[in-house]
Amino acid sequence: MLISSTSKPFLSAASLRLLSRTHRRSLTCSAHRLVAHPPDLVRWVRREGGSVHPNLTIGDHSDFGLGVVSTDGIPAGSELINLPSHLPLRWNHPVGRTSDGAYAVLTKLAEQVPEELWSMRLGLRLLQERANVDSFWWPYMSNLPETFSVPIFFSGEDIKNLQYIPLLHQINKRCRFLIEFEKQVKAVLKDVSPKDHPFGGQDVKSGSLGWAMSAVSSRAFRLHGKALPDGRHDEVPMLLPLIDMCNHSFTPNASIVQERDATSPNMSVKVVAKKEIEQNTPVTLNYGCLSNDFFMLDYGFVVPSNPYDQVELRYDDSLLDAASMAAGVSSPSFSSPAIWQQEILSKLNLLGDNALLKVTLGGPELVDGRLLAALRVLISSDMESVQKQSLDTLMVLGDEEPPLGATVEAAALRTVLALCVISLEHFPTKIMQDELVLKTDVSLATQLAVQFRMQKKLLLVDVTRKLSQRVKMLPKEKSTA
Ligand SMILES: C[S@@+](CC[C@H](N)C(=O)[O-])C[C@H]1O[C@@H](n2cnc3c(N)ncnc32)[C@H](O)[C@@H]1O
């Protein structure tokens, strides 16, 4: 490793497998910061022109790591934190002492990152600052966690412990990307002159790239950029010092307010109390109405009983045939739909060359609207009454009369119930076994993986319970299909 005198060395981690078996619950990864005794972040924000409410400090927030906590009561509507535009760390910020050459190299690297991994792009910028001993943001960066609990750092065993293929697929994709990107970065940097080297001459390994990508995915906020012709604004991801110490809640006591768009030199980002905050209360923000897949992949935690969590399924004729058979639904045309049924399936984008076959259970909808409409249509043999209904009506699981009558509804819901049972059976362990594992002394990664899969199963049980209630409420004599 080439370390120039003007750069801070990166983590020595050459491998992505950073979380070892010795990481126990009490040692949440956020307890360890980049340096042992980082500077006081609140003082730094104030010194650099930001403001922080006098009744706030950084403290422990139980299993969530560090958090912003009130030392005394704070009235609703109070401004808690205010960052002027030079404090956030973002891609297009004036690059300080770094030459334009380095910026051009960084841009070239960022162009090789797929759009969906935007966190790696800003991560490159973070690594650039991390390599610079004179970085304005060093007091901020030194307060960042040394490691993250996102699954790209899990052992192979713990990735398997997640027991959920869609997430495994995403993790593999990210790990493969990081390994490939390390090679691309090396190839680009090999001919770069020292003065244009964005990382002060240092090699960048996949472990450092993963650290930076995780720092951004778990802490960056997407703010409003310039106005687009359609009236919306483009999104500009930024790391917001101190604001990113606030933990997540779906019922937060604070929210972020942005004044002026990100192109304005007078932009500011504030955290404002939505309600009165009592003494010793963590200040929380809503990171978004996200499924546990996103919380796990980007943030490294799982929200218990998450109302936005879902289980993904593939819309598949043979799976539906198996489910309807298990549900005792007589002769639906899943594998051989009539032409009029095929037309509706195409409109639902469940049939055809570019069909989108991913459907979901759980979340606010309970049953994916497209799946529900398809089941209703395929179970009904009455073309006329189906064609009287709009697609939107067929897709809604409402409290009104079911659109195709109680008999079809009961058969459709029973088929979904059978899908829940089949999905539950696909998990190699039962909820009770997961609970037992969580009572033992296992690593943080194992705990997270087991919590994640257990929440998916609890979600399926919850959907089963709610759908069974709906079937029971349907008129009795018509509820057999
Ligand atoms: C934006 S940072 C918040 C500050 C962080 N706790 C720290 O110690 O630096 C987000 C990280 O905090 C933790 N976190 C935030 N909200 C959480 C929650 N509701 N449950 C569990 N962990 C949470 C996760 O580790 C997440 O990746």
Explain what you see:
InterPro entries: Rubisco_LSMT_subst-bd, Rubisco_LSMT_subst-bd_sf, SET_dom, SET_dom_sf, SETD3_SETD6_MTase. Keywords: Methyltransferase, S-adenosyl-L-methionine, Transferase. Residues 54-288 form the SET domain. It holds the Pfam family SET. The chain is an alpha+beta fold. It folds into two domains: 29-299, set domain protein methyltransferase, domain 1 (Alpha-Beta Complex); 310-478, Rubisco LSMT, substrate-binding domain (set domain protein methyltransferase, domain 2), CATH 3.90.1420.10. Helix content is 40%, strand content 13%. It has 16 helices and 14 strands. The strands form five sheets. It has a four-stranded antiparallel beta sheet, with helices on one face. The protein has a three-stranded antiparallel beta sheet with strand order 5-7-6. A hairpin with an 8-residue loop joins strand 9 and strand 10 (268-273). Helix 3 crosses helix 7 and helix 14 (406-426) packs antiparallel against helix 16 (444-473). Residues 1-7 and 9-30 have low confidence and may be disordered. S-adenosylmethionine is lined by residues 30, 64-67, 145, 149, 218-219, 244-245, 247-248, 299-301.
